[in-house]
Amino acid sequence: MQIIPVASGKGGVGKSLISANLAIALGQADKKVILADLDLGASNLHLVIGHQAPKQGIGTYLSGQAKFEDILLDSEYKNVRFIPGDSEIPGLTALKISQKNDLVKKLQKLDADYLILDLGAGTHLTILDLFLLSPQGIVVTAPTVTATLNGYLFLKNAVFRMMYNTFKKNSKAYNYLEQLKSDATSLQRLYIPKLVENIAAIDPQSAALFKHRMNQFRPRLVLNMIDEPRDADKSMKIRRSCNEYLGLELEHLGIIYRDSLQDKALESRLPIIVYKPQSLLAQSIYRIADKVMASQTLTFDNAVDSFEQAEAEAAEDLETKMSYVEDLLGSGALTTADLAEIIKSQQYDLTQLRKENQLLKSKLLKAAAQGFKL
Fold first, then answer.
1. N or C: which end of the chain has fewer CB within 10 A?
2. How far apart are CA 1 and CA 67, in angstroms?
3. Could you report the per-residue pLDDT of 191-212, keeping only the tens digit for each?
4. Structure pTM?
5. Are 300 and 213 in contact (CB under 8 A)?
6. What are phi and psi of 64, to 5 degrees?
């Protein structure tokens, strides 16, 4: 199964449009497709495909109100099944580590030729981790200055996230990154190739592992909403920046012209390739689908055990949650007593994660010892 996460550095660039229509185009080509709405803070993919407002979805599953198989729905389109989101359930944008790991396992076990993940916009840790489920995710951007910059910054954050997930906690490479993290300005200005060179001098094994993963990482770019041919040059700027500053090679899946028919299709609750299959926009989608089908399915062959990073991720997620809590306190929507309960809950989660880590480490050591004896 080829997993295709679809992400963007900012909202409003047509990410959901491309996810939905690409899924239908692949289904029309006799491929089994599952389309999942993982824009956990603003789920609206059902509107793009003309699906009724879902009664159950990712949110009801994560909150224990539904089984995973119950949220995998048939769509009215050939070979396409749909997993809706739940934007009305609070807290979905800040998943617990256990929730994220469970969701990932469920997604990876699905039976399909293609699993398309419509992710939220931005660089939240959950979004980055879901994007890195596959080395060949799609980044959607537009020719405006802010969109192209945010597209590049998304990929930069994805590379840094992959680096953190590659280095084992307390390794020389990991500690080096932690030291740099205290000076965010220096870290942001440091080019990835130079950073890897510095790490190789102190921790060659970790640097070699990261280089291997980077060689496997082949994200793909779609430039949407262009108005004239010269707008297509914006994609070359992203490619050059990724190559020079990140040491990353991008694949260009293609460009899509702005088309007013899309608004009419959305009003009609129909995907554009169904509403007007001969339109320029629909033909662009079909061209991208052809390229996807012609591409080899890639995987990360050395995926890092997520449990090794659980404590670090929990701490990072706690920082994210606390910034959200500060906003709530400032608005008066959260009381000091509520804050105390949240802190107690976080401390309990961290304690449980540490226990789980110790148990898993002991199991891994026993398994390794038995394998050695054999």
1. C
2. 22
3. 899 899 999 999 999 999 999 9
4. 0.79
5. yes
6. 80, 15
